[in-house]
Amino acid sequence: MKKLVINGGRKLSGEVTINGAKNSTVALIPAAILADSPVVLEGVPDIQDVHSLIDILNVMNVDTTFEGTTLTIDPTHIVSIPMPNGKIKSLRASYYFMGALLTKFGKGVVGLPGGCFLGPRPIDQHLKGFRALGATVDSEMGAMYLRTDQNGLVGTRMYLDVVSIGATINIMLAAVKAKGKTIIENAAREPEIIDVATLLNNMGAKIRGAGTDVIRIDGVDELHGCRHTIIPDRIEAGTYLSMAAAAGSEVLVKNVIVEHLEGLVAKMEEMGVPMEIGEDSILVKEATHLKPINVKTLPYPGFATDLQQPLTPLLLKATGTSLITDTIYPKRVKHIPELVRMGANARVESDMILLEGPSQLQGVEVEASDLRAGACLVTAGLMAKGTTTITGVENILRGYDQIIEKLTALGADVRMIEDENK
């Protein structure tokens, strides 16, 4: 079992470059199988989720080459087979194969998805969308069976009951070759949705309105390969911005789209973190005398739920009481008991997180229960006195490419070890 060992108290300084967006990449890879010739994705992060998706593609006889940050996907000889359950269970984003397979073959069998457990994350809106387009959906033996009749998928107007990134993308994937026009109302507006729509349009799709709450799709007969550069990862960027403010003297975070981070940057400014905003970079200077804040996560362009946990340790530097309310995943609180073990004055009341600062953290052994909780604990370890050991490292590696190398380059004392006893 891998463990991450951090000797805290060292000030971070230097530069860090942000990778392509994980949450785009895991949708762009399934989207690529809709083409009838190779798709080249640039800026692909080298993370476990990407390798899991590549494994799934290879099982489906899709040729792939992954060199550096460039992934080439050739679906010319793709075959439709049931999705390998083990990979699906470990990777929630594998559900994007539902929409892609339905479009490509008119049918698909997909194991029910896994990923980080953040409380209930139903896929009912995905299924509602597929059914509205004319598909039948049955659940048997832990798998979803998707089928269309001889008419195939037919465009329609639908309203999503809740704003869902996953459902919006999956319905887009299903609708790009449906007959006629599809209109998705109350669509999610996240940058990753624009990224997927951009790829699909470059492949020959006709999608308008991505980034707004109404997306219009005119079905096309065929899609072709193309080259596409993935947007920078706003969650990775936000994580390093939080780390820089919590444990840095002067850190330049490069390859960011500042507009995608406005919710986080506004909250850091409210706390009193000194920053210089560039065109595609943000310089974070040493943060002292920070003020407490209230944070409420909301769908984009509100404060991202995925940045709630990475921001939490920084709030422990503020003098006074900070309050976090996660309206997207109210049960996203597993990082709090771990921070308490490190000496944080923090508690959860009625799904609200209350933090009293300033808290001096002390290194202990903690567990990363999910991806963003892991990022939170890495930051806490950088802030803490003594040595912090983090288990559950595989959760961190699912979403952060070269995190050890990047932190080491900033001056952190962090290393990976293998625990022989486990």
The average pLDDT value, as a whole number, equals 93
Biggest beta sheet summary: 4 strands, mixed
Strand order of the largest sheet: 21-22-1-23
Q: What class, by secondary structure content?
A: alpha+beta
User: Beta-strand percentage?
Assistant: 25-35%
List segments where confidence is low: pLDDT < 50 over at least 5 consecutive residues.
115-120
The rounded distance between the terminal residues' Cα atoms is 6 Å
- Quick one: overall form? globular
Query: Helical amount among residues, as a percent range?
Result: 25-40%
With helices defined by DSSP (H or I, 4 residues minimum), what is the helix count? 14
Explain this structure:
With 422 residues, the protein is an alpha+beta fold. It has helices at residues 22-32, 48-59, 85-90, 96-105, 124-132, 165-175, 191-202, 234-247, 262-271, 308-315, 335-341, 371-383, 393-397, 403-409; strands at 2-7, 12-17, 39-42, 63-67, 70-74, 107-111, 136-140, 143-147, 157-159, 181-185, 206-208, 214-218, 227-229, 248-254, 275-277, 281-285, 294-297, 320-326, 345-349, 352-357, 365-367, 387-391, 413-418. A four-stranded mixed beta sheet has the order 21-22-1-23, with helices on one face. It has a four-stranded mixed beta sheet with strand order 2-14-16-15. Strand 11 (206-208) and strand 12 (214-218) form a beta hairpin. Helix 1 runs parallel beside helix 7 (191-202), helix 4 packs parallel to helix 6 and helix 5 (124-132) runs parallel beside helix 6. Residues 115-120 have low confidence and may be disordered.
